[in-house]
Amino acid sequence: MPQGDKSSYTDKQKRKAEHIEEGYEDRGVSHAEAERRAWATVNKESGGGKKSGSGRGKTESHASSRKGGHKGGSSQSHASRSAAAKKGWETRGHETHH
Question: Is residue 89 part of a domain?
Answer without folding.
Answer: no
